[in-house]
Amino acid sequence: MATGAIRGKRPGKAGGNWRAAIARTLRKIGGAIVLLLLAAGLALWWAARWTPDRTLYPTQGVTIDAGNGDVHWGSIKAAGADFAYIMGTDGSAGVDRQFARNMAAAREAGVQAGAIHRYSLCQLATDQAANFIRHVPRRADALPAVVWLDYDDRCPDRPTRALLLSELATFLAQIEAHMGKQSVIAPGPAFEADYKVTQGIARTTWLRRDFFEPDYGAHPWAMWQANDYVRLSGAAGTVGWNALRPEGEMR
C-alpha cells in the first residue's frame, strides 16, 4: 500500500512541473509581446514626428488632401510648414473636394501653396489638362503645379514609354500655358523605374522616399517627400512632409 501511494504521487509532481514550465513559457512570450508592442509604439511615435534636419533643409512644407479633413492652416504654419502642396485634380474628371477651401485658407494663413494633379495612364492628356485648367485658377503667387505620376489600381493601362512621354509633354504644355510657369514632375519609384520620366522630360523633380534621401531620378531632386506619416494637430490623419533642396545645393 505504501509503495502504491508513493507511485501515485509521481504523476502529480510531473504534471505540476509540466504546468509550471508552460506558465513560465507563456510569461516569457507575454513579456516579449509587450516589448514588441512598446517598440512598435515608439517607432510609430517617432515616425509621426520625424522631419529632416532644418540646418540642412531650411525650407520645408506639407502635402494635404481631402483625407486630412477641415485643415486648420494656422496650426499647420505653426508646425513649421513654409509651403503647402494641395491635391487638386485627378485624371480627366476628378477634383479633390477640399481643394478650393484649402487653397484659400492656406493663402489666408500666409502659407504659399500649389496644386497637385494626379496623372492617369487611362485618360487622354488633353482631357486631363482641361480638368486641371477648369479647377485650378492661374495666380501669380501660386507655386508651380505638380504632376503626380504613379500607378493606380483603378487604371490597368500601361502605355509604351514613347506614348507616355508624348502624352505627358502635351499635358504639361497645356497646363503651363494656363499657369504661366513650368510645372514640377513627381514620379514614384516604381513609375520612374519603368518609364524613366526624369530622363525624358526636362522638368524640376519631386521624389519620394520615407526617412532617407531618394536617389532614383536621372538628376538631383529639387524637392523630397521625406515622411508620409507625419501627424499634425491641424489636420486629420497623416500628411506628407517635404524638404526643399537649398538653392545651388547639389548634394
Automatic annotation (TrEMBL):
| Classification via InterPro entries | GH (IPR017853), Glyco_hydro_25 (IPR002053)
Annotated Gene Ontology MF terms? lysozyme activity
Which branch of life, at top level? Answer: Bacteria
Give TM segment ranges. Answer: 29-48
Keywords from the named record: Hydrolase, Membrane, Transmembrane, Transmembrane helix
* GO BP annotation list: carbohydrate catabolic process; cell wall macromolecule catabolic process; peptidoglycan catabolic process
The reply on keyword Hydrolase is yes
Record's keyword annotation contains Cytoplasm: no
Q: What family is it from? A: Belongs to the glycosyl hydrolase 25 family.
Q: Which PANTHER family match?
A: LYSOZYME
What is this protein identified as? Glycoside hydrolase
In its UniProt entry, the species of origin is given as Sphingopyxis fribergensis
